[in-house]
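RECORD TYPE: inverse folding
INPUT: structure tokens
STRUCTURE:
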């Protein structure tokens, strides 16, 4: 299975002004924006870390997911949430010939934690032997920062600030999150731990 981002979060969707305020950086100077690229980098790193820990896509973008077979021929859980729309379903055989599946044959079952691609008939289309199915979908809480749940937005700011404040540290550590961040994201992680097809 391979999950790929087809679009990226634009810089304009990142809360740069909020992050500067959170860090209590001075304003009104001629070089106010000198640290902007560094701050954007920390915001992106924090965003990626929170998404990795929770399985939730925070800022909306398009993904493609390639898999070799269905977990269940009637319903395939999708790897991240929340999913707003399935844009296409395509089968590709060993000869790289592609078949686009009619959207009338499947439907998206929305769920805050475990969205599912379900058959609208007798079953999802058979994946060719040695071939793959590719699902293209749009996922995320929304296109802008204001669309995020407040606790996840705060977790990103806290983690980005942690990265910023410890940016000169070179010691290797285990991947533990600061306590405040871990507490804020905990309720988003619990359901994900159910795994595969658990509902």
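DESIGNED SEQUENCE:
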């Amino acid at each position: 299975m391979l999950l790929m981002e087809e679009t990226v979060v634009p810089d304009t969707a990142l809360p740069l002004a909020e992050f500067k305020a959170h860090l209590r950086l001075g304003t009104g100077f001629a070089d106010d924006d000198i640290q902007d690229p560094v701050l954007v980098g920390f915001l992106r790193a924090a965003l990626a870390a929170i998404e990795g820990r929770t399985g939730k896509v925070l800022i909306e973008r398009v993904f493609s997911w390639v898999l070799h077979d269905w977990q269940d021929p009637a319903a395939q859980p999708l790897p991240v949430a929340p999913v707003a729309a399935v844009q296409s379903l395509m089968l590709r055989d060993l000869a790289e010939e592609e078949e686009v599946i009619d959207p009338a044959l499947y439907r998206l079952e929305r769920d805050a934690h475990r969205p599912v691609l379900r058959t609208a008939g007798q079953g999802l289309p058979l994946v060719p032997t040695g071939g793959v199915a590719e699902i293209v979908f749009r996922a995320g809480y929304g296109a802008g920062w204001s669309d995020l749940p407040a606790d996840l937005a705060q977790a990103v700011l806290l983690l980005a600030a942690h990265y910023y404040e410890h940016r000169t540290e070179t010691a290797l550590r285990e991947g533990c999150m600061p306590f405040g961040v871990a507490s804020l994201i905990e309720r988003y992680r619990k359901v994900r731990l159910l795994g595969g097809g658990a509902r």
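NOTES: The beta strands are 2-5, 61-67, 75-77, 83-92, 98-100, 106-109, 116-119, 132-139.
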